[in-house]
Write a structure and sequence with these properties.
heterodimer; A: 422 residues; alpha/beta; Aconitase, domain 3; 2 domains; 18% strand; globular; B: 163 residues
Amino acid sequence: MGKTFAEKVLAIKSGQSEVVPGQIVIVQPDHLLTHDNTAAIVGKIGGDLEEYGVARPEMPVIILDHVVPAASEKTAQNHKTTREFVAKHNIPNFFDVGTGICHQVLVEKGLALPGSIIVGSDSHTCSYGALGVFSTGIDRTEAAALLLRGETWLRVPETIKITLKGKLNPMVSAKDIILSIIGDIRADGAGYCAVEFHGNIESLSIDDRLTIANMGVEMGAKVAVFPVDQKARDYLSSLGIEESAYQAVWADEDASYLKELVFDLGDIEPVVAFPHTVDNVKPVSTAEGLEFQQFFLGTCTNGRLSDFEIAAEILDGKKIAGGVRLIILPASKEIFEAALEKDIITKLSRAGAMILPPGCGPCLGAHQGALAPGEKCLSTANRNFKGRMGCKEAEIYLSSPQTVAVSAIYGKLTDPRKGGNQ
Amino acid sequence: MKVWKYEDDINTDMLFPGKYTYSCSTAEEIKPHLLEDLDLEFSGGVKTGDLIFAGKNFGCVSSREQPVLGFKAVGIQAIVAKSFARIFYRAAINQGLLLVECPDAVNVFQEGDDVKLDAEAGQIQVGSKILTFPKLPPGILAIREAGGLLPYTRAALKKQKSK
């Protein structure tokens, strides 16, 4: 009997010839991601760190991104505590405020290697599945224990196979794919499971795959993973990572799955997730005209160069509607600079957007771009929970960059296939 | 003992709003904001030994552990749900909080029912009905029984060092 991706990676990494779903294995993750919560994590184990030190200093990857630049004395102190910890324990993989969102930076810096295991004290750690990584979120306490011991347990998950066939239509994007899937199988549809994406993967860019894998957790998935094809190898090579540096793993043809689902990309249309759950998904075409006060284009889901490229194409030479706000947030400094060089930032700014520094920004409501009671925001983020953007009487709707850009021109929900002609 | 009853898909933003995640990390700081956007009566009314009953996918989706720290601090005896989100499930083990995955217990529960839990036996009595729930595998149970992952880790490190 063949094996799934998860069964193979966890067997290799736990030093066993084979493992089965439900089995508990002990692994040493290749990396442990933490961000602004590093201060709280090391705060739990101050005395233990004095006594035992950090088990594997090359394991932690620390990226300050959640409240950057600091918004208060408290958040500034968190950053300071983190820098002191990094210096004291000689942590090589540290990226200070301004580098970007952890899930983009970790990939850009070449730390997400196919076949590796990455755990992170952030639920969107599942993003690296785009590059064939077994990556998943954990809590802060687990991260603290990992710093001390360098190993942890994982339950071998059952796997759901999702086959994507056909091709996307113009102005329909990876975000519409993953929102449609979540709308279909619901927020717990992949609970405790690994999700493998098969089929016409080569039609999806690495940015597309990152968008899709990023939202795996929104359907309860432990990991959401793509095969490492030529496109992925080329991308890694562009980061200076040669094939000899990693060992890609993929499922056997005859692997056994909990469930197999097929989605025809040609059937997918622009969709929007209504408040207050990600699985409350409807076609944009059925809800056109809904008015928004704020539009937000960015985050670890859709803050990449291709997202801003398409938005700039739509908004070039146009203006956003009067009385609405458009917030642009590049996922990393590298993306910001690339967008500057391509004049994308200029086009977006002239269309009426305001540009925020690379980071998580308005997504979690801790600072920047918070909403007032009664306001609605159309966002490219991954969550629309009540209170998420700082106000429980506000509403958050999730969509693709295309839908956000076109809708911002009209100030209301608009099918992106209509284009941005005013 | 009071049972606090909630619906399906209660997410971590409802349990503890994201805007506080970098300003509140101790149990004392967390307590007043517990369930702030879901149930304003909870943080003032909850008492040691109380139970939470909920539908499926409780604790989705973020990695936020503050709700678990908060539930421990206010003395929640256990959370009984149809299912739990995985990071929340793990976070509960790591804080030594008992989670009971038992859809039948949630389905049969009626307002006013007395609830008795026997974690060791994997049994829950709701009103007159006795139901069973799956226990954790032995290695993982040891983490919860040590009072959580940090005490468990400290004991393991101490043992390693003394070898």
